[in-house]
Write a structure and sequence with these properties.
Blueprint: H1 3-38, E1 58-64, H2 71-78, E2 88-94, H3 100-112, E3 118-122, H4 129-140, E4 145-148, H5 159-163, E5 172-181, H6 188-209, E6 222-225, H7 226-231, H8 242-252, E7 256-267, H9 273-300, H10 306-316, H11 321-341, H12 352-374, H13 378-397, H14 399-411, H15 445-466, H16 472-491
Helix pairs in contact: 1-6, 1-11, 1-12, 6-12, 6-13, 8-9, 9-10, 9-14, 11-14, 11-15, 12-13, 13-16, 15-16
């Protein structure tokens, strides 16, 4: 390898490491915010729901698309919401193109016969996808406040009573709740998804919200002030994460968001890797699209402080960290050989310590979020160590897939909103086999993922003749991560 190429590899590798390090420092700052917020007793003005004059009118929107397996469970659960019927309407925003429309219509008719104000709203096309459906429903929504639930969410019956009360503060535009996971322990895949989401819904959401930094409505399990949606420009379907887009537009208009860590809204995690792939692709591409669309507005805004701008930029760059991680992984083997070919450049390789420090910071941050939900005993800590490194390995294994999503987002390549198939799986005995919504096509990335698995096996082997085992643990995790993603994807077609 020539000296010029070696310098280029070193430069790209180092820049990616520094960006990952900056991200980990931002997470560490959020941890400090999170822990300090735990010690604060925050009082807030609240509606008195015992006074009929203070009970606001609420519209619940249920955007659905081909949800045969979960629609009955969803509607039965929403019908149990405890709230005065005279102040509640439910909109089922049904974009379905299969036979589930008939089943949904029948179930809605039965609920209407009980006196529930529930409407079945069907569009002629899916223009704007979920954002388009929400916007269409908003045109005729009677509620001053709009609660939104995806098809796999099961809010408790007192959910509205715990959330709508905070809108007494007229500056609050959104109240968001923490996601729970009804099938957390179904498999390794569901456990690591729950692990990552728990970190977002504790460390990140609380850490940002407690200091007035921008957070995001998570697409579901939250409630909007209708006036806030309209003031921010209404739902737009030009990104795959319409929730993040509207959240930033609203906060740039000075609307406040309220995050409730203590209110958990249970939901179902994808149990098949193809479903997790489609969800990850949409979230990561949408994040990059929103960075492209919004970052300049955040940076140039005159009404938000520098620290809020910094966290806003890092938040919008969240998904782009996969690109940095993938570059570090891909270049780590050439770096191993450069290190052993050009001894005079040894000082450059101190940059590797950035990745070790970043990993330690994330390990500490995620422990505090894990213990807040799972517990803090010694056994919990041992389980956490195993889960953290499993999560870390699988996240590395997803890095190619998510990098493709991020690059498409940054380059402005448009793609269809691909919904995540739902399964109605609550425990280990339930099966996903036979779900008609599962994609039958193998991901083209699978071949590359298999190649990368072999590539990092070569990286592990390289440590032996070079007598340099510094990157061996990293290459082992990459080998296991890409192997997990490849073989799980292969078995999901069986």
């Amino acid at each position: 390898m020539g000296l010029t190429i070696s310098y280029i590899v070193i430069a790209i590798y180092s820049i990616a490491l520094i960006l990952i390090f900056l991200y980990s420092l931002a997470q560490l700052n959020l941890l400090v915010n999170y822990l300090s917020n735990k010690r604060r007793n925050q009082e807030a003005p609240k509606f008195n729901l015992l006074d009929p004059k203070e009970i606001p009118f609420v519209t619940i929107q249920l955007p659905i698309y081909n949800e045969e397996y979960v629609v009955e469970r969803l509607l039965d659960n929403i019908a149990k919401i405890e709230y005065p019927k005279s102040k509640l309407e439910i909109q089922v925003l049904d974009d379905s193109t299969d036979d589930s429309v008939t089943e949904t219509a029948g179930r809605i008719k039965a609920l209407q016969d009980t006196g529930l104000d529930i409407q079945h709203i069907c569009r002629e096309n899916r223009e704007g996808f979920k954002a388009g459906a929400l916007k269409e429903g908003l045109k005729i929504a009677k509620g001053e406040f709009i609660a939104i639930f995806d098809a796999d969410f099961l809010p408790d019956s007192d959910w509205l009573k715990k959330t709508v009360i905070y809108f007494k503060d007229k500056e609050i535009g959104v109240v968001q709740t923490r996601w729970g996971h009804i099938n957390r322990d179904y498999s390794t895949l569901t456990r690591i998804q729950a692990f990552a989401l728990d970190a977002h819904f504790t460390l990140e959401q609380v850490g940002r919200n407690s200091k007035g930094h921008f957070i995001n409505f998570n697409g579901t399990a939250g409630i909007w002030r209708k006036a806030c949606i309209l003031d921010a420009g209404n739902w737009e379907g030009d990104t795959l994460t319409e929730d993040l887009d509207l959240s930033y537009r609203a906060q740039l208009k000075n609307w406040k968001f309220k995050y409730l860590e203590d209110v958990e809204t249970p939901a179902e995690l994808p149990v098949v890797i193809s479903a997790a792939r489609s969800q990850q692709f949409r979230w990561n591409k949408g994040g990059a699209e929103n960075f492209r669309k919004t970052v300049l507005s955040v940076i140039t805004s005159k009404n938000i402080p520098f620290k809020t701008k910094f966290h806003g930029v890092m938040h919008l760059l969240n998904s782009s960290m996969f690109l940095c991680v993938f570059l570090v992984a891909l270049l780590s083997i050439p770096m191993l050989y450069i290190k052993n070919s050009f001894g005079h450049m040894g000082w450059i390789f101190e940059a590797t310590s950035f990745f070790i420090v970043s990993t330690i910071i994330l390990f500490i941050c995620y422990w505090f979020t894990y213990r807040s939900i799972q517990g803090s005993s010694f056994d919990h800590f041992v389980d956490y160590i195993k889960l953290f490194f499993t999560f870390f390995s699988v996240a590395l294994g997803f890095s190619l897939h998510n990098t493709v999503a991020v690059l498409e987002g940054h380059m402005g390549k448009r793609s269809e909103f691909v919904r995540t198939p739902k399964f109605n799986i609550n425990n280990i005995t339930d099966s996903w086999k036979g779900n008609k919504y599962l994609t039958k096509k193998l991901s083209p990335n699978m071949i590359l993922e298999f190649g990368l698995m072999l590539y990092f096996l070569f990286g592990m082997y390289s440590a032996i003749p070079l007598n340099d085992f510094g990157l061996f643990p990293f290459h082992l995790m990459l080998f296991l991560g890409f192997g997990f993603v490849f073989f799980k994807s292969l078995m999901a077609k069986a």
